[in-house]
Write a structure and sequence with these properties.
The protein is built from four helices and no strands. By secondary structure, the chain is mainly α.
Length: about 80
Amino acid sequence: MKQFGQLLDRIDWPIAVIAALTLGLAPFVPEPHLWEKLKMLAAGTLVRPIDGFDLVLHGLPWALLLAKLIRAGLARG
């Protein structure tokens, strides 16, 4: 866990935010891919392996950003 925290610390904030906003939301039209996959997951239609891969691929930058936010919050408090 300590190594993961050190990895998070090495990733700059602008890189994490840009990754979440670009890779995390691409393609933008007709709707962000991550939003589409989350709707499929909620509806129970996320059954194909490629859809699961897409969910992980587009969700990972957001998970990374969230982890950095949590770590920064814990470091302050």
